[in-house]
Design a protein that fits this description.
With 389 residues, this protein is of the alpha/beta class. The protein is 36% helix and 15% strand. It has a 7-stranded parallel sheet with strand order 9-8-7-10-11-12-13, sandwiched between helices. It is globular.
């Protein structure tokens, strides 16, 4: 990304010895903050750099060598105390966490999350300089807790651009890393041994979180693509998350593949999953956290989009990718729906064409190519035409 979307950058980075990054939430949101946060290490090579995150995404951060510390927000313990009506326990746990946070004596906080909770946590850190977004990117009153605000334009932009802009506000000009998600060698070795000899596979990740089933493409579609790739001599693996619905989706895809794909080896941690993607020739799946993990380790991705915004949720631009979607009357939308018309309408031939395009083009790590396969309706014969994003 050569042009920052921040419209009010500082002339030079401020002095800082102890820096805290705040990005709570889901895996996809956390890993999409990695490229911007990694530039902080380049700009502040001798500073202490810590990240405040919720438990679900802590493991992927723990493997990043440029981070000095990962501070886990005790969301589960606080929520359990609140739901159980144990207000004394809630207050005690919250006070203990705040004391530990303030003891770190951070002098600069970057709040990438920019919601009420993250804004309050930034203020409670005691840091005198707290940087976040101006509205509308800061929500729920989060801007009130920041001492400095990055103004961004345009209002609709990718999460990667938005995160980069917060760092550019500080006056940092360091380039974004090509592959910002480091995978430890032990994880790579474990996955390599589990895969055994043979050509690098295409990894199909058909599931999404339980909260977003409307982002899933059909098992029949994935199965058809796997069968076509098998005929091309390309092996396929199918992965799943820990949720029962994810495992059921993976099993349905394997049935539809009729032997053209096999289950991926177990990946008990996010870093193990990242290691699997690092060994893959290509990733195929819906808009999800694992898709962004694959892109950030440098594996080319084919992203299947339905209700989510193709601009805001575009894959990492330093990795080769294709995004496939069908424009219907109601997408993109914020909530999704049970009908999931926009996902079911994605044609198999368009997905297969996108996969073959990346495979045939030799799109490996560092390839600067991306695109949006926007399948027009209702002209089935013309579906799959490709145009630049």
């Amino acid at each position: 990304m050569d042009i920052s979307t921040c419209t009010n950058p500082r002339a030079a980075p401020p002095a800082a010895e102890r820096i805290l990054v705040i990005r709570l939430g889901a895996v996809g949101d956390v890993v999409r903050t990695l490229p911007a946060a990694a530039t902080l290490r380049a700009a502040y090579p001798h500073a202490e750099l810590a990240w405040l995150v919720e438990p679900a995404s802590a493991s992927v951060l723990a493997g990043q060598p440029w981070l000095d510390d990962v501070i886990v927000f005790p969301r589960g313990a606080l929520r359990a105390a609140l739901r159980g009506g144990r207000l004394v326990t809630l207050g005690r746990e919250a006070a203990r966490f705040v004391r530990r946070l303030r003891a770190r004596r951070f002098d600069l906080v970057l709040d990438f999350h920019a919601i009420l909770k993250s804004g309050v946590l930034a203020r409670l850190s005691g840091a005198p300089r707290r940087v976040s977004y101006a509205r509308p990117f800061a929500r729920e009153g989060a801007a009130l807790f920041a001492t400095e605000h990055a103004r961004l334009a345009p209002p609709r932009q990718s999460r990667f651009d938005r995160n980069e802009a917060l760092v550019r506000y500080l006056g940092i000009e360091a380039p974004l890393p090509e592959h910002p998600l480091a995978v430890p060698e032990p994880a790579l070795a474990r996955v390599s041994q589990a895969l055994g000899a043979g050509p690098a596979p295409v990894v199909i990740h058909p599931g999404t979180s339980d909260a977003t089933p409307y982002k899933r493409w059909t098992p029949r579609g994935y199965g058809a693509v796997a069968r076509a790739l098998a005929a091309d001599g390309v092996p396929c693996l199918v992965t799943s998350g820990p949720a029962a619905s994810d495992r059921e989706m993976a099993a349905a895809v394997l049935r539809e593949a009729a032997g053209a794909a096999r289950p991926a080896p177990p990946t008990p941690t996010l870093l193990d999953l990242a290691a699997l993607f690092a060994h893959a020739r290509l990733y195929l799946g819906a808009d999800s956290g694992p898709m962004h993990v694959a892109a950030l380790v440098g594996t080319p991705v084919v992203q299947l989009l339905g209700p989510t915004d193709p601009v805001e949720n575009a894959p990492y631009p330093c990795t080769a990718s294709r995004s496939v979607r069908v424009q219907v009357a109601c997408n993109p939308c914020k909530r999704g729906c049970d009908a999931a018309t926009c996902m079911r309408a994605i044609p198999e031939n368009a997905v297969l064409a996108a996969v073959r395009s990346l495979l045939a083009g030799g799109a490996g790590r560092g390839a600067q190519t991306s695109g949006l396969v926007d399948c027009a309706r209702p002209r089935p014969a013309a579906q799959g035409e490709e145009r630049p994003a």
